[in-house]
Amino acid sequence: MKSWHLITWGIVLWSSLLLAGCSGLPLWLETPEAKRTPAASVAPLTAEQAVLQQFAWVQRAAAEQLERELPALEEVFALQPVERHRLRLAVTLGFADCRGCDRQRAVELFQQSQREAEEDTTRTLAAMFLDLLETRTQLEARGTELARQRQAAQALQQQLGALQEKLDALTSIEESLHQRE
What number of other Cβ atoms are within 10 A of residue 81's Cβ? Predict the structure, then answer.
């Protein structure tokens, strides 16, 4: 009787946890599609909010998720080339780390939004993302250059060590020659 009572309470506990868990999924279980589907009582997101939400998602998404999402964004933009879809695609192309990502195309899409957007806030957002993307590209180039310089310095350090060993050997030989004389 006691074990049956524990099993019953266990089932009740797990059921309540399961039901409570459905009300708010952890971030790692939420899909981009689920996040973008507004609830009936919530006002739809503005284009700027949707783009910022896409940026936040791109920052924490895994490469596999990004590679699945990118073709869907391309298709949506091809069917409806509006600012919201253009900027969401540009954010993903420019800031994601995946095989299909293309920073140059992202720059072109951001520039197009700067020229063609009707809303000032959308143009400003496109300019901000364009500036951020250019800064990120410059920082990555600088990081690559620093890594190359670090490797060159290590190679020179190794050569210096080898030359120092040779100099020490020559000095030792010279001292032994002087001792023989």
Answer: 11
* Residue type (1 letter), 118: E
Which secondary-structure segment (H or E) carries 135?
Answer: helix 120-180
CA–CA separation, 96 and 60 (whole Å): 9
pLDDT per residue as tens digits for the range 72-115: 999 999 998 899 999 999 999 998 887 878 889 999 999 998 89
Our CA angle for 28, 90, 118, nearest 5°, is: 120
CA 88/CA 110 separation, integer angstroms: 10
- pTM assigned to the model: 0.60
Q: Angle of helix 47-60 relative to helix 83-95, nearest 10 degrees?
A: 20
What CA–CA distance (Å, rounded) separates 61 from 169?
A: 57
